[in-house]
Amino acid sequence: MTSASCGGAGYWQQRADVVVIGTGVAGLVAALAAVREGRKVVVLSKIAETATFYAQGGIAVVLPDALRADGDSVSAHVADTLAAGGGLCDADAVRSIVADGYAAVADLVDAGARFDEAAPGHWSLTREGGHSRRRIIHAGGDATGAEVQRALDHAATHLDIRRNHVALQICHDGDQVTGVLVHSSDGPGVVHAPSVILATGGLGHLYAATTNPDGSTGDGVALALQAGLRVTDIEFIQFHPTMLYSGGAGGRRPLITEALRGEGARLVDRRGGSVTAGVHPLGDLAPRDVVAAAIDARLRETGDPCVYLDATGIEDVRGRFPTVTAACLAAGIDPAVHPIPVVPGAHYSCGGVHTDVHGRTDLPGLFAAGEVARTGMHGANRLASNSLLEGLVVGGRAGRAASAHAGQSGPTTAVAPAAVRLPVLARPALQHAMSRHASVVRDADGLVRLAGMLADAPRRLVTDRGGAEDAALTLTARAIAAAALARTESRGCHHRADHPETDAAQAFSISVRTDTTADPVVTAPQVAG
Ligand code: SIN
User: Fold this and answer.
1) Where in this chain does the record put each FAD-dependent oxidoreductase 2 FAD-binding domain (predicted)?
2) Which residues lie below 8 Å from residue 273, measured CB to CB, with a gap of 6+?
């Protein structure tokens, strides 16, 4: 790893023990954990909106024996997670994270989060695709993420959160992290720190339409790639089966939670025919990749622009699902009366920066947690509502690990200015190409065309949020195109029209790196270690 030094004359300078980039569930839990360990923590926030806020369904968690009635167990949750993950989960990582789930949720309750109850003292549990049991706790009906974010924001009021601060580069000396190069309204600056935690969320804005908030532009993946690190399982982009369809509008689109199907809603086509009949034994509650592919296939077959989620049979659907109801009513649809038009939408990156279950990357001092990280929890397809769980558990662990690392390392200094010239493809062109060639179904022709466009992207000096986001999208798209081309089979969220079968010989993760110079090129994929 060559070094990436930051800062120098003309840069503002700050010092911290731990820098956390991102203010969703993983970022705030990590920051709070590091502060509890007595560290000086600086949190960088690019944008107030987080993906956590928009999470609807809930948190998948196995309750202690005394609180559950249906024979759920850590082993059952692990088995469901592995089954959804298409053979690529790291079973040890899954067990470790699932086993710590209840303790992490209990900490969140201590921080003030409140979940819906079926009876006093008993949380109401729902089901989502791929879960063999009702084990998903929720809040405000379908506003779980908003409650998690509210509780964490409240707990974090005493933290040093720098708003409108964009991380441009991770500084390191080749052996370990020395800080972060930042853009803010005060111009460029550097926060010197021995520990940095990436908690930047996802990358949905690689696509023309997504359930993700505006800032989900692959920033953490790109920062890690620039630092010479591997990203793993990055070809597995999860498309949520039911994003509200409104005449093909792009940008962030409302999610129609899978919990509706858990409560009995049915996926039908324009003629009322079931979309998933005969596709999977769990029908509409099959894992997400299966349902999204079934919808995609039906749309290709019929030429229709959307299918429908019929939730009219759910008792008090408006009361149980107020967030979905509000989004539907805003689009002129009453879910109690009319089937909801839906299409699959880019929702979640199952892969990301390669870490262990404590968020440690290959670069000492650099950690990652939440959607940006690949711990091995999700494999080729994330099980519904496992993401808030992972963010809570690994966020806390990463905060403690980063704190311990800072304690061992002492203060660092990141020196000498760095000019960052990165490939930047215009966002509309990139989103169009990704939506066309790297969406629910891919093939070699499309992926080669995509990779060619990305390789030809002109380089720009990246000095502000817009440039950083566009460069992050371009770098991340390059990694996805390379991994998706290399995986010549269909598995989990990765469907190749030219390789429709799963190939047992490819039951391994693929990692991608780029050059560590200012001229990033996706290198040959490697089998993950
Ligand atoms: C949903 O509510 O359907 C989304 C939950 C998730 O992505 O885990």
Assistant:
1) 17-388
2) none
Annotated catalytic residue, options 253, 261, 288, 513: 288
Q: Phi/psi of residue 332, each to 5°?
A: 80, 20
**For residues 102 and 120, what is the distance between their CA atoms, to the nearest angstrom?**
19
The set of protein residues with a Cβ atom below 6 angstroms from ligand 1 is: 55-57, 257-259, 348, 384-385, 387
Q: How far is CA 256 from CA 133, 217, 245, in A?
A: 21, 22, 10
Strands 251-252 and 209-210, how do they pair?
parallel
Helix (H, G, I), strand (E, B) or coil at 268: strand
Q: Are residues 327 and 353 in the same domain?
A: no
**Model confidence over 370-394: pLDDT tens digits?**
999 999 999 999 999 999 999 999 9
Q: Give the chain's domain count.
A: 2
Flag whether 510 is in a domain.
no
Q: Is 288 a catalytic residue?
A: yes
Q: Which residues form the domain of 315?
A: 243-344
Which two structure tokens, joined as six digits, stand for 112?
């003030």
Buried b (16+ CB within 10 A) or exposed e, 322-347: ebbbebbeebebebbeebbbbbbbbb
pLDDT digit string (tens) for 403-420?
999 999 978 888 655 667
Confidence tier at 516 by pLDDT (50, 70, 90): very low
CA of 186 to the centre of ligand 1 (A): 38
pLDDT surpasses 70 at 210? yes
Beta carbons within 8 Å of 44's beta carbon, 6+ residues apart: 19, 20, 21, 22, 162, 165, 166, 167, 180, 182, 191
pLDDT tens readout for residues 9-20: 678 999 999 999
Q: In the listed set 390, 409, 428, which residue is the last one of a domain according to the structure?
A: 409
Terminal alpha carbon distance of the chain: 17
Q: Rounded to the nearest whole angstrom, what is the distance from the C-alpha of residue 58 to the centroid of ligand 1?
A: 7
Q: Which two tokens stand for residue 374?
A: 């690949």
